[in-house]
Amino acid sequence: MGRQTSETPRATGLESLAFALLYSLPEFARGIVVPRPSMTRLLARLDTQAAAQRFCLRLRVRYGGRSLYVRGPRGKVLLLLSQGDVERVLAGSDSVFSLRTEEKWHGFSPFQPDSLLLSQGEQRGDRRRFNEAVLGGAAHVLARRIDQVMTEELDGILGRRQAPVDWERLRGGYDRATLRLVLGDAARDDVQVLSTLNALRHQGNWLGLGPRRRGRARRLRLAMTAGIERHLEAPAGDSLAGLAAAAPQSARTCPAGQVPHWLLALTGLGSTVIGPTLALLAGHPEHCERARAEACATGGERRHLRACLHESLRLWPLVATLPRVVTEPTGWHGATLPAGTDLMIPVAVHNRNPQIGYADAFTPQAWLDGRAAADWWIIPFSAGPGRCPGSDLGGTVGTAVLAALLRQYDFFPDGPALGPDRPLPKTLDPFSLRLNVVPRIL
Ligand code: HEM
């Protein structure tokens, strides 16, 4: 290590070990590419995020609020603990602070080697334009269609009697809706596309450290891609596939290579975000009533419901860590970061920074009055050139699901509520949330 980088603080060996045990290892065990339900349950019981949060606060105090190097299993990583550094990296050029880290490549290349997420240079520019055109357009052009499909697929999905919420059933209906919205109605029961994608995601979860089963991965990827291409060849106009056919593209774009990420993002929303948002609404009746009023109104933007969804994403982010890698020597507080320096933004820690006055309280208003959007600690969709191009679409789909459910059902906590009378837990297991459901029209 040269003189120039020595000015950036380094964690001691013990601190690096503690960070690995409290943050990196739990993240890895929970599943970076697809959540492992049993591990998610265990980590929620141990409330590992609370321990990680306390530890990062201690580091911030000890190192004067500066970002610092920590050692991990793959070498040294610059942990971004300063708000200014987070802003600088995310808002900076993606050709300097690249999204395509080695770890991301290992995790995501088994099923989306040609995706925007893993692209660089001109190819990245091309695919970014394509993704923005399809996903940005879809949030508006398909809004009514999204509502219609969700209403159809979720009609009576939780039964006609009072009962505990059957999450598996709900996810089944939601996944069918996702296939219709992404690939068209003909894909509704094409479970093979999702099952091969999921098998490949599980392989990616090892981040290249587990058993290498290249032959199996290749076979699964071929089967998944063939399924996707079949639907893209005859695209239904009222789906992402239809919008993709009309979007600007070149020989570099690889539309079929973008679809796995769209499916991953949308199924992730259904399996890990909708449940916590419903539980928050069940624990905050006044917000639930406002959200239901929007759900029952015809037309309208559902701003409050969307704010509830965003707030749920702040509290328990879908993407808990943003990695970046520096591609060229880059000035850094009077020192230089060499090319190849790995950076890590612990989103789940920052989103609950105690400097946010409402850190552990459900506060949808912060998304309505602009506080959340203006705060660089709050980055559930990332920011700058890597900002999620599907955030609007995710909001439209998420609010359509919540609206379809709130029109039909009342939800009640079965056990301690996620309510306003105590700080919300830092770690949550979306797979074993206990809610009771009562149909509104018997
Ligand atoms: C509503 C829930 C969603 C959340 C919280 C979310 C979050 C994120 C985040 C944090 C990133 C940046 C990753 C990084 O910087 O390393 C990202 C990227 C991305 N997301 Fe989303 N996302 C959501 C929904 C969606 C949906 C519905 C789609 C598409 C159907 C989508 C497509 C993408 C794509 C293509 C990228 C890659 C962007 C790039 O590399 O430039 N996302 N998302």
TrEMBL record:
- Family matches, as SUPFAM superfamilies: Cytochrome P450
User: InterPro entries annotated for this entry?
Assistant: Cyt_P450 (IPR001128), Cyt_P450_sf (IPR036396), Cytochrome_P450_monoxygenase (IPR050121)
Q: Which Pfam families match?
A: p450
A molecular function GO annotation: heme binding
- Identify its protein family: Belongs to the cytochrome P450 family.
Can you say what this protein is called?
A: Cytochrome P450
Q: Which organism is it from?
A: Nonomuraea thailandensis
